[in-house]
């Protein structure tokens, strides 16, 4: 059976230590019943930890929850608890009745004896390419999702837009789903979406914009740029006039604090996106 091994660095109770690792109270109670190993000895109650103590949490094997299908899976980063992949454009994340990234991940898990469900930390639209995080167990999933909620994971995108746009600003907008257009539109009663936009390259026919998202709202980059009157090239839903095989949005940058070591991990992968050959 596999396990997660932590090393404590300060005086703290076992319960508080695990809470800081995003272990929920319910999960803690389940773990303590079966015994949490501290310095390789089972512990069935909350105890005080000392600097240098090791804590082990055992992980039960799980069955795959998606059909394994072999596909082109580009892995950018991997450790015992996390996988970061570069999703291509045109591939859904986990849609029913379609071959998806989840199917490719299931095949990889099967071939590499990773006995776990597919746990997606972040998602991308079908026609958006780029970096995505996938947890290998429920404890890592809880940790990274909390990091996302607390805005401790930096995610940056590149977007191609028509025309010249010189921008370097924090853009805030309230967005709500509009049933008639099947898209997200500005609405005072909507949820706030915050993005830092910065021009990377400004040309005569198009500009490349870096989009640093500060909130994780659906379609926030696409809707925000459309509201600024600069829709992403190829994004017909949000007003682009160009028919393209995809819309030109790519998640190229990730920065996060690793689950066990607490080290800062920085990943960049352009996947041939920049420069992108376009003819307008």
From TrEMBL:
<comment type="similarity">
    <text>Belongs to the pseudouridine synthase RluA family.</text>
</comment>
<keyword id="KW-0694">RNA-binding</keyword>
<dbReference type="InterPro" id="IPR050188">
    <property type="entry name" value="RluA_PseudoU_synthase"/>
</dbReference>
<dbReference type="InterPro" id="IPR006145">
    <property type="entry name" value="PsdUridine_synth_RsuA/RluA"/>
</dbReference>
<dbReference type="Pfam" id="PF00849">
    <property type="entry name" value="PseudoU_synth_2"/>
</dbReference>
<protein>
    <recommendedName>
        <fullName>RNA pseudouridylate synthase</fullName>
    </recommendedName>
</protein>
<dbReference type="InterPro" id="IPR020103">
    <property type="entry name" value="PsdUridine_synth_cat_dom_sf"/>
</dbReference>
<feature type="domain" description="Pseudouridine synthase RsuA/RluA-like">
    <location>
        <begin position="81"/>
        <end position="226"/>
    </location>
</feature>
